[in-house]
Fold this protein.
Amino acid sequence: MGKRRLVGGGSIGGRVVTAIRRGLRGRVLDFDSLIARLAGTGKLQRPVVAKDVLDGLHPVHAAYAHAQNQVSVMAEVLTSLDEMAPFADLLLSAEEQYMPDGPPMSPLTRSYFTSWAFFDAGIGRAHETIGTVILEVGTAFAMEANLMRVIRLMQDSRMGLYAHEGVEGELAILREIATGSVRRAVVPAGYVGRRGEVWFARVLPSAVDGRSEHVVFTTPYVILAPGEDEWQAYFARTLRGDGRLDAYERLMKYGPSHDYWSEFVFEGYVNHRPEAIFLSGLPDVPESRPLSEVNRWR
């Protein structure tokens, strides 16, 4: 599949809004009808998670799973537009490289890959993502306010490195290694873990009024080695100068390259069980990752 022509200047989101308005030719539609019209169908596509499954989820997980359903549909529709060619090309390349369907096919799970693809795969100096484009389109065409709020939480999220500090009931207690912040989190994948583990995960705040639990939205990546001290050393040599926390946020969300964290997962894979995937190594020490090119040639 060849790359499509890039369209115009300015932000991608702005060009998408302009293209949609041009296509509507002055007509006003509600947001759902707009997406259905763009898709060329009379209704939205089948959701990623069925309604009966959503109804059985923990409330803080269900809010995000519903939003992810909607984002998946909108992303599929919007990436068919020429204005979205940079995203379509990037994601096609990543799909071909990593085949992200979870073990044994790939250590990249769908929950990890789609979160990266929608919210972290930034284009240009402004790091526009499919999520920021959806939010810009949603603002222009009156997306439902609560859905916008939850999508914005997802867009503002990122992966993180966490030290496991034990379990309280159904919740895993996770302390972020670089920031020290502690989250009590539901783990929908079913692996609550144990004290002393190091997790690589996307942990989202509650989007439900009256609930304080966070949710581990991705299947947990449990790092068997090294431990917290070595990760602190990694951050010390990677995050330099003033603004260390801002640098940490950028590192965990965007990495030095689009494939930085995906390569870490892919090359660090050791083993798995249905509810967790086990890794080993550090991103900046190729010899520490079992499937790195250095180790493959040994």
